[in-house]
What does this fold into?
Amino acid sequence: MFIDAESLDAKSAYKLLIGSVIPRPIAWVSTESTDGIGNLAPISFFTVAGRKPPRISLSIQPRSDGVTLKDSFVNMRDTGEFVTHLATLPQVLPLHISASEFEPDEDEFDAIGLKKLPSLAVKPPRIEGAPIAFECVVDRIVPAPDGLNHMVIGRVVQFYIRTTSTCPAGGSTPVRWRPSAVWPPNTRWWTTPSCHHWTAKPSHTSPAAGCDGSTRTTRTTR
Ligand SMILES: Cc1cc2nc3c(=O)[nH]c(=O)nc-3n(C[C@H](O)[C@H](O)[C@H](O)COP(=O)(O)O)c2cc1C
It folds into this structure.
């Protein structure tokens, strides 16, 4: 089946996108207003976007009234800085609460009861307990034709990777840090990959190597 994207309304296009790209990791983004008020926002339209420089992208819609720009976006635009975290499965509840439309003068860390940790390279703080954080500066903002939706491209200037999350072979060990991701259509389905559900990269020369350095036979995704 082919579907003409140009003729689709936003909701139908959204459903095709989120039903195809699964599961979607969620960026848990901290920002600060120019007055220093902390803001948190989960963003599922998030992906890696470059290696050198390392870049990520976030797409941000207006608030539920359809016209007001979100505080998180306004903060990124006005300060040029933000921190993108990857949350663990146990952090899904505070992450969801942080999607509430708090008043701009309410610090969301305080409202939700999350502790701020200092970032190294940017002003917005890190979220305590988040195993991975990318401290970012705004590289560019790409507005949609309506002027209300925006893609923010961030350049990562500092990585925080909790050392117990690190894989000796490079990258991180998902089984250890229990990453969360959303799997539509029911956004309450969060996944934590386990070794039993991985399919190792095919290799003609050696058996699959696990992140713990061991070798194991390849198991197929069920
Ligand atoms: C799992 C999840 C994913 C979300 N993904 C997005 C997204 O990709 N883009 C977006 O604009 N809002 C997204 N939201 C909603 C924002 O998080 C929410 O509107 C924002 O935190 C509102 O607060 P603010 O005005 O303080 O920024 C998502 C919410 C949840 C719970």
Summary: Residues 26, 39, 41-45, 59-61, 63, 70-72, 96, 98-99, 101-102, 182, 187 surround flavin mononucleotide (CB under 6 Å).
